[in-house]
User: Fold these one by one.
Assistant:
Number 1:
Amino acid sequence: MVRGTWLEQSGQRWKVGAFFVGMGVSGALFAAMVFWMTASDEMRFLKLPLAATTVGIRAFFWLIASVRCGSCGGRPAWHAVQKLDHAVWLQVLMFAKACPICAAPAQPVR
Ligand SMILES: [Zn+2]
């Protein structure tokens, strides 16, 4: 029996962690915007949501571009986003026991 998830075995679990950090920063920036909702500084209301959106989008696209399969060379995160329901793609990616594209066991990423 194979121990650990495909992401762990391929040494790419940290990428999901970095994705969550990026999403946390994005959420914190949105929270800061709400916190300062009564302030009169209009630029703050422009910069905070722009920064929050930018960080969130970058974290998302970085994750789907950076997770690679050492066997098929594909991008399993992108595959999961395209093929699976939006509510489950990340869960499927995080807990997969083999590559979501080719079903191969984890290989070192080239
Ligand atoms: Zn693969």
Note: The mean pLDDT is 89.
Number 2:
Amino acid sequence: MINRNIVNNNKSYENNINDINNNISNSNNSNNNIKKEKEKELLKKVRQYSILNLEIKKLMSELNIDENILNAYINVSNALMEPNKLLYKKLYCSGIEIYYGEYKDIRKNIKWFPKINYDNCNNCYKCIDFCPKGVYDIEYINKSKKVIVKYPFNCIINCNACSYICCENNAIIFPENKISKIEYKKEKR
Ligand code: SF4
Ligand code: SF4
């Protein structure tokens, strides 16, 4: 009897230790998960920031915008760590014709653009907000709204950045293989 009690006490001691260990491990896991989520969010922001800024800088130099303005923009956006979407949109409207100037006649032969798998899309509109090329838009059907790929050929060739900001269900799909330079040159001739 005494022995059984000792065994039982030992068991409950072991159970307690196991519970504590489990709690610690669960709490570590949940801390790790929160950390991972935060890192993921940060990476998304950095990616968005970098892409928009690259596009803005590209457009500014294509438009021969005064170097001082370009430098001021770079300094401000670096300090804020925030791309200026309004400025981007204004510049994009001025630069739209020149951006794909070098291959605008053949852009429509290059099949690089996103497709949406509507089974996985939750209509969060993040892609509309994110894409620096205005590829996505909202379509209104009766009283419902849905995100569509409205201007597929505005998509930057070999960019697939929006698929990273899309929901976890991978609703945005791109071709499996990137467009190679050799293929691009062939198409250019
Ligand atoms: S991949 Fe195309 S649609 Fe997506 S963000 Fe880049 S340019 Fe926009
Ligand atoms: S980001 Fe993805 S889930 Fe959200 S609207 Fe666009 S395609 Fe749909």
Note: The longest strand covers residues 136-141.
